[in-house]
Amino acid sequence: MPVAVVMPVLNEEQHLEEAVRAVLEQRYPGPVRVALALGPSTDGTDEVARRLADADSRVLLVANPSGRTPRR
What is the pTM of this model? Predict the structure, then answer.
């Protein structure tokens, strides 16, 4: 069964690569994808995300221009 992990991200330049790699390196018998919902970051988050997506087709970039996430 495929799994998709959605990560809303905002100003996560320092931690984004480690977080994405931690998901992609999990042992899971099916396909895994990571969707990064990119908020309006003011650091290098978008560049890190773009580099990750270019290097691994399992990483998908989605714009989240408002930066909002659902409330619990």
Answer: 0.90
